[in-house]
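Pipeline run #58 for the internal structure catalog. This entry was flagged by the ingest filter as a single-chain record with no existing model, so it goes straight to prediction. Upstream metadata was stripped on purpose; only the residue string is passed forward. Reviewer on rotation: M.T. Logging verbosity set to normal.
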Amino acid sequence: MGELMRNPTVMQKVQEEVRRALAGHDKVAEGSLTNNLHYFRPVIKETLLSCEIVLLGLLVI
């Protein structure tokens, strides 16, 4: 979440995509999100990869 906060443009785009995917749904179901989040998935994946690299770097030192 911190990475998204540092990039407000990316955060806004992700929020819009999630809101569009959930529009008209009373409850959030995994099935309703899996096919509709084409921008969100790579953003989260990239964030997790960057965190993993930092953690690995700390373990090596």
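catalog note: The mean pLDDT is 76.
catalog note: The chain has four helices and no strands.
status: ready for reviewer M.T.
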